[in-house]
Amino acid sequence: MLRSVLTLCLVFLTVTLTHANDGEYYTSGNQLLPLVETDIRVQREILTLRWSDDNVAEVDVYYEFYNPGKPKTVLMGFEADPPMYIDSISRNSAHPNISDFKVIMNGRSIPVSTTVVETDTLYVVNGEVQPVDLSVYSINDDYNIGSYLFTADRNDAVPISYVYHFNADFKSGINVVRHRYRYEMNVNVCTHYLFDYKLSPALRWANHQIDDFTLRIETEDVPLHFMMKDSLFEKSDSPVIDGTGKWRVRTIINEMDRKMSVYEVFMRNASIEWKATNFRPSSELHIFSADCTETGVICNPAEYYSWRYSLVSGSIHYDDIHRIVRNMPYAYRGYIFKNKYLNDFFTSRWWYIPDPDYKVDLEKLTPNERDWLKKYNEDYGK
């Protein structure tokens, strides 16, 4: 059996917890060192994303790789940035905000190891991932911010990453890899969730592309309203929704005060798919909550989203805002309001899709919605 080191284009949505003035930053990432296995191709990738209102996303990636040569063992991995403020590191080196990390290859579960490594070094030596000697560094003070650990005397620092790595036995021909995990999504004062997924590492495989790529976003009990940069799928077919939902392409103003073209999507009990062949991603996947649906300016969210998710105050003000906000969970599910003010308000929202069969049932809201609604009514009255 041959043994080599390979860059794996798995998702790296690192979960980095930051208590900063502008929000909590959880997710960005990179890959293992770019030592590319030149004769293995990515023939197919299906990226499935699901998330609820607890800001925990489920990532499920299906790959089909083609190995044209003899069977071989390949070191594959997933690199995750550390939390922005490090106050502890677990003994097993697992990332504090990534959970249920699993890899299945050709129907067999693969053991996964986790290691804290020094980012700026060749940390794969002779096919082994080299750990940082944590005994040298202090990890319980305010100086350990960003991607660095500092020594006790603070005269030296080391940039670190969390690496999930495993040995993959490739047979000749088609190999199926299934990769799954859960992670906490990013939040800030303008959007109540966002995450980025790096697709460009697919260019490092032998075919320098994904022959057949599908992005699938699913939801059942929780309606989703989000935006996504559309530059990633400029040459693909239009997305297809299965279930109740709608989408549109629009131009908004991003955080850098620049124009950005996005898909805006609203759906419930539905899925949406983007498909592309001979896919050579020129940008990365960037998804975020559609809090700016009214204004078209990311840093100026709609007032009803500002109140609902404690975002920065929006510039558009509505009469009886508290009445609007406490009825948002029902409007999301298509309730047709008998009150003229509420009916006029919600029917004029782009995302609203009426459902004549929907009946208000507090118990069918999510636990987060029920808890939030109870507190909101206590604070602002019914």
Please describe what this structure looks like:
There is one protein chain. The chain is mainly β and 382 residues long. It has 2 domains: 2-222 and 271-279, Immunoglobulin-like, CATH 2.60.40; 318-380, Methane Monooxygenase Hydroxylase, Chain G, domain 1, CATH 1.20.58.1690. The protein is 10% helix and 40% strand. It has helices at 303-309, 321-326, 328-332, 340-347, 367-380, and strands at residues 2-5, 23-24, 29-30, 41-51, 56-67, 72-80, 98-105, 108-109, 113-118, 124-125, 128-129, 137-138, 148-151, 157-170, 173-184, 187-188, 194-197, 210-219, 224-229, 240-253, 259-279, 285-289. The strands form 4 sheets. Strands 4, 5, 7, 8, 15, 17, 18, 19, 20, 21 and 22 form an 11-stranded mixed β-sheet that branches. Strand 10 (124-125) and strand 11 form a beta hairpin. It is globular, with a radius of gyration of 23 Å. It starts with a strand and ends with a helix. The relative contact order is 0.15. Residues 1-36 have low confidence and may be disordered.
Question: What would a concise description of this structure say?
Answer:
Helix content is 10%, strand content 40%. The protein is mostly beta strands and 382 residues long.
Q: How does the SSE layout of this entry go?
A:
Layout: E1 2-5, E2 23-24, E3 29-30, E4 41-51, E5 56-67, E6 72-80, E7 98-105, E8 108-109, E9 113-118, E10 124-125, E11 128-129, E12 137-138, E13 148-151, E14 157-170, E15 173-184, E16 187-188, E17 194-197, E18 210-219, E19 224-229, E20 240-253, E21 259-279, E22 285-289, H1 303-309, H2 321-326, H3 328-332, H4 340-347, H5 367-380
Parallel strand pairs: 1-6, 4-18
Antiparallel strand pairs: 2-16, 3-6, 4-5, 5-15, 6-14, 7-8, 7-15, 9-14, 10-11, 12-13, 13-14, 17-22, 18-21, 19-21, 19-22, 20-21
